[in-house]
Automatic annotation (TrEMBL):
<dbReference type="InterPro" id="IPR000522">
    <property type="entry name" value="ABC_transptr_permease_BtuC"/>
</dbReference>
<feature type="transmembrane region" description="Helical">
    <location>
        <begin position="235"/>
        <end position="268"/>
    </location>
</feature>
<feature type="transmembrane region" description="Helical">
    <location>
        <begin position="307"/>
        <end position="325"/>
    </location>
</feature>
<dbReference type="InterPro" id="IPR037294">
    <property type="entry name" value="ABC_BtuC-like"/>
</dbReference>
<keyword id="KW-1003">Cell membrane</keyword>
<feature type="transmembrane region" description="Helical">
    <location>
        <begin position="422"/>
        <end position="441"/>
    </location>
</feature>
<feature type="transmembrane region" description="Helical">
    <location>
        <begin position="520"/>
        <end position="545"/>
    </location>
</feature>
<dbReference type="Pfam" id="PF01032">
    <property type="entry name" value="FecCD"/>
</dbReference>
<feature type="transmembrane region" description="Helical">
    <location>
        <begin position="638"/>
        <end position="655"/>
    </location>
</feature>
<feature type="transmembrane region" description="Helical">
    <location>
        <begin position="93"/>
        <end position="111"/>
    </location>
</feature>
<dbReference type="GO" id="GO:0022857">
    <property type="term" value="F:transmembrane transporter activity"/>
</dbReference>
<feature type="transmembrane region" description="Helical">
    <location>
        <begin position="566"/>
        <end position="593"/>
    </location>
</feature>
<feature type="transmembrane region" description="Helical">
    <location>
        <begin position="346"/>
        <end position="369"/>
    </location>
</feature>
<feature type="transmembrane region" description="Helical">
    <location>
        <begin position="447"/>
        <end position="466"/>
    </location>
</feature>
<feature type="transmembrane region" description="Helical">
    <location>
        <begin position="147"/>
        <end position="171"/>
    </location>
</feature>
<feature type="transmembrane region" description="Helical">
    <location>
        <begin position="60"/>
        <end position="81"/>
    </location>
</feature>
<feature type="transmembrane region" description="Helical">
    <location>
        <begin position="123"/>
        <end position="141"/>
    </location>
</feature>
Amino acid sequence: MTTPDGGKWPLLLLVGIPALLAAFLTITSLLRLLPMELWWYAISATDATDPRQLLYRHAFLPRVAISLLAGAALGLAGTLLQQTLRNPLAEPTTIGTNAGASIALTIATLYAPWTLEHGKEWVALAGGAVATLLVFGLVKGRRFSPIAIIIAGLVISLTCSSAGALLMAINREYSQELYIWQSGSLVQNGDATLFILLPWFALSCIVAFILLSPLRLLDLGDESVTSLGMSPAAIRLAGIGLAVALSAAVVAAVGVIGFVALAAPALVRIAGARTLRQRMIWAPVAGATLLWLTDRMVQVLPFASEIPAGTATAFLGAPLLLFLLPKMQFLPDPQGIMLSRHRRNGWLLLPPILAMLAALIWVVLAVGYDGVGWHWATGTELTELLPLRAPRVAVSLAAGVMLAIAGTLMQRMTGNPMAAPEVLGVSGGASLGVLLLFVMSPTLGRPAMLVAAFAGALVSLVIVAPTGSRRARSPERLLLAGVAVGTIASAFSAVVLASGDPRLDTLLAWLSGSTYRATPIDAFIAVLVAVAALAIVPFTARWLEVLPLGGTAARGLGLRLDRVRAILLVLVSASTAVATLVIGPLSFVGLMAPHLARMLGFQRALPQLFASAMLGGLILVCADWAGRMLIFPWQIPAGLLAALIGGPCFMLLIARRRQ
């Protein structure tokens, strides 16, 4: 694509084609808004009596300018992070910086607005810095492995997102405004934001080019840098600090814009920008044109409400992530990503766990808060409450069992201790199938939704699995491919939410993992499938013991790998599809339960499957009950609460691997 000397034609085409298309869309919109002869006049002497001139001067032009400026800032931030971390997937979204800045601004807006008096940028900077430091703290013992940084960043991002969604659920009067801002909106009302972001970007550019020579030395390796009398840690700290500050300023200005910081440096590198200087020049230009074009395109889509630009950029970044994965080189990671294993006989703990689960079910059916105080229902009162509470408890229990089984099967099948339906995009694929049905069909019958969820889950596994198996020991590719599929599903859900469909209330409740619409039919289907899964998985125990040994050993022991994997994929897809159908796309339950079982000593496949199933049910039953009680009479969806609890637990599991 490029000449040996790094010719600039590919770079010019990369920037020029999107810029020409964005300019065409911009001029077309301008002509509809205001005659050409008034364009310059409306800038220099706006007529306050003409609404068209006011929109042109205070909304249209600032929006174009902020899209260019924010895109350029993200392109530079991504270049700095990728150079300092030596990681082509590093960007403010994947290392948790954007999520930290976003949750800090959300908390400040709701509970400490006085902290915003001196500028939102400083609050965002503090939040982004804390999140980034937490990521590095989690992976410090693993020598800042690139894949470890990305995984820790994604976990922190999902945890912060769950916390933000919880805050919006508690503060419903601000939920719509916060949702639009968190999704990355470029809508402007004047040029104040533009003139706040511009000095940050200008100063960052100056500092970045001052750091150019030290940053370029990182290509030589830490030992060479040290021999030249410089500190690699100090250089990385300066580069990361500058990128975090720039990212925080963008979040404060327009919200979270994902993947532009990943796409711009990657594309200019492919187009021939080989040196750091070239990437630092061309990546901001590419980022500016990409975000400009994206923002122009979302405004011409036929939806009742506008899709936030941050959501639209996910459609660009996630496929790019899938495209880049096969080209990436991952260092061997003999430590694994998660816990070391305890060697104990776990069978003896199954009866106590089962007794605990039975007691919990009785408690959540009988105990509740009625606005006056806590109350234990008995006799006739309990009988009257059972039709309301029992379906929710049954659905939560069955969904937890199915997700835990799916997570255990995936971890043993792939040899990847971080595999789970939620992490590898299987839940996202199931939800995407239901969303596509939502768009194409005027009705949402349960049988059709089940088929759509199953098809989506199976297709996502088919997409992800080949990416993870390109090399025998590459579970990291499997993880990141799953993240890409999940991102596509999330972005599509945001598009559907912007469609203005009158059925969105039901869809919103389902997407957040709420059980308050659970019916006896839902409970019956979920319990039936969960029981069927528990009855089938014992026949897979031998396969699950052998598969972690590798393909060669498995074939030597007589396994027909293609058939075994196909059967396991169907089991995982069916369990995930039904769980997603009845309770929505949850997070972390399918990941946490197998690890909790392993921590308790369940090492063999069969006892781990049963223990994981009981623990998964226990987690979701607890989450559903707590969601009903914590902010009564309002409710927190069980899936949201499980994700909020699961994120910190996941971080602890990662931290346990530090040396």
